[in-house]
Amino acid sequence: MLLKMKFNQQRRLRLAQGLWLLSWLALTCGAFIFCLGVYLKMELLRRSEVMDNTEIHVVPNILMMVGLVSIGTNWVAGRVCLDSLDPTRFPRWKIFLLVWFAVAAVICCLLIAVVVLAYALQGRLEESLKIGLRNGIRFYKDTDVPGRCFQKETIDRLQMQFRCCGNNNFKDWFEVQWVSNRYLDFTSKEVKDRIRSNVDGRYLMDGVPFSCCNPTSPRPCLQYHLTDNTAHYNYDYQTEELNLYTQGCRQALTDYYMGLMNSTGPGVLSVIIIQVSVILSLRYLQTAVEGAMALENPEDDSEGYILQKGVKETFEDVKTSVLDMLKFSQVDPTTSKGSPEAEDASSTPAN
Amino acid sequence: MAVLRVTFTKTKRDKLAQVLWILNWISVVTGAILFSLGLFLKVEINKRRELMADRDIQYVPNMLISVGLIACAINFLGGKICYDCADNTKFLRWKLIMLPYIIFTFFFTFCVLVGALLCYTMHGELEESLDQGLTEALKFYKDTDTPGRCFLKRTVDMLQIEFRCCGNNGYRDWFQIQWISNRYLDMSQREVVNRLRSNVEGRYLLDGVPFSCCNINSPRPCIQQQITNNSAHFNYEHQTEQLNLWMKGCRQALLEHYSYIIQSIGLAVFISWLFELSVLTGVRYLQTSLENMLRHGDPNSDSDGWLLENGLMETARINLNIIKNLGKNNQIDTANNGDPNINVPSTSTAHYGPDNVPPKQTSEAT
């Protein structure tokens, strides 16, 4: 027996009461996990326009599902506790408890997987943001194209809220035409020169939109002719740091989401610990009560354990029973060969 | 004749005391809510302290805070009194205090009402304060190197971004002040010198606005410089362009923000005033019915409760007389010939004969 403990009637009662309270605590933790999943999903959906794919959504999806399932399982655990001290009502839970343990183990594994995924998917999140932001910056000027007309507002709001500029930094705006052709005077020489200066015929300039401006700068914001030191008085492009936001939006958003997931990490870990303690306590209660019911005097002492045999033996038992189940539909070649021979042997003497 | 007389049986009195106990505790919570509302308003006003000129607007949140605290204390005492009133023996402890308590609470509810009204009168003062404060803030926008004003630029920029407004009344306010510091002006350029010479005070004025005035809903990249010059930008007409910059003035935006808060607070204070008044009415009925029960002498008897023993005018007259006679305890009453040695005409009905009769001559003289 693995980790066996002796339980008298008083201890069984205490265990049932304590487990009932613990299962309600675990139920509220399950509700907390569900709300956490909902919150994460909403935050991700809010910025879904600058994300290319939804792979990162697997984290809040798992959290929501696990939260709902754990609410159900912990409620069942509470009912089992109430019935455990009544010998007439307890036996009907017997088969159900096997399923319960399997489901609860799956919940714990999923929660651990969520914690691991939150770190593992950081790279995918960055990729998704990189592509999404690149598209957003490219379509910034298309405020007259249906489906893209709010890109400008989205990018502007994003840059102002997260205090960032461009994808990696503000130079991303130099490589894109972010002023629409509707507002360019094609008769002007300067415009024509700029358009002819590159292969694709884009109006590129060393300027950024106003949303890149840093309000903490002591000087009024310089948006245009950023690389030209002579265009502005007392301005050095290489050393100027306060004029625009220096951080890239991809980095800012990744930091924000990683911060969110990291801060929920300890909460999820403590929920895992609570759920594991519920599983162990219920196992002890189940074995102790079953042992007590098997005795002549149900009020006597009984033993509770985690596993009846050792870990290795239990594993072998489980393996053979699973293999037997798989062999159930196969025809057994040894018995079928034996029976026609026996029939022949019995039919020949009749001749 | 009493005002709004109601008869109370013993059980009704006890029930009234219990209900009033609970209501007084709810009033304590209401007082705490008033206190927190006053605190919230104080914090909100202090948040934008840099944009408001020195005006006396702190009196409204201060009054709300003090009214909230006093309401908590009064209703706590009221709860204790009502709890004890359910028991006839304990009521005697509070007998002498109850009437002064009711009078004090009645005048206090006036303070609550005044607090509610003050919330609505604050509007004018607030507007003036914001007007002056914003004008000063816009003037000092460029002084990011002056200690004490170096964060004003950031404050104004964040305000314009957050509240979606530009300038004091509109974006034209920026045309009338120099918002670019001289540190960043190239005095050797002709254009700069011309602009400086173009006005009396030598300020660098231009028809441009800071970047924080830009409207993010505009379909076109923001036009901040040469706003009034139609030919400086392609396909641009300054009179009809509405989406380029924020059109609202910051004074109006802030005023709307604060008006919303203050009106909600005023409504909450008014509702709590009505609640306090109803609790006070209940306590008055309880007091009068218990006193009448004591007058009858039988604790289980029915007794009447009322708001005022006599009519309104009678009560006012009696109280005025009491107040008039309060100060007259040591004065000699000269109006009615108060000196007992002076001859007062007799008012008795006994007839002692006519006055001014000369004394009768005795028989000794003859």
Automatic annotation (TrEMBL), chain A:
TM region positions: 21-42, 62-82, 94-121
GO aspect biological process, one term: visual perception
InterPro entries in the cross-refs: Peripherin/rom-1, Peripherin/rom-1_CS, Peripherin_LEL, Tetraspanin/Peripherin, Tetraspanin_EC2_sf
Topology in the lipid bilayer: Multi-pass membrane protein
Location of the region described as Disordered in the Swiss-Prot/TrEMBL record: 330-351
Main location: membrane
One GO CC term on file: plasma membrane
Entry keyword annotation includes Transmembrane: yes
Compartment list: Membrane
Short name of any one Pfam family annotated for the protein: Tetraspanin
Keyword terms: Membrane, Transmembrane, Transmembrane helix
Similarity comment: family membership: Belongs to the PRPH2/ROM1 family.
PANTHER family associated with the record: ROD OUTER SEGMENT MEMBRANE PROTEIN 1, TETRASPANIN
Protein name according to UniProt: Retinal outer segment membrane protein 1b
TrEMBL record, chain B:
Annotated localization: Membrane
Pfam assignment, any one: Tetraspanin
Main location class: membrane
SUPFAM superfamilies reported in the protein's UniProt record: Tetraspanin
Family: Belongs to the PRPH2/ROM1 family.
Keyword set, alphabetical order: Membrane, Transmembrane, Transmembrane helix
TM region(s), chain numbering: 20-40, 60-78, 98-120
Membrane topology: Multi-pass membrane protein
A biological-process GO annotation: visual perception
Segments for region (Disordered): 334-366
Name the record gives this protein: Peripherin 2-like a
UniProt xrefs under CDD domains: peripherin_like_LEL
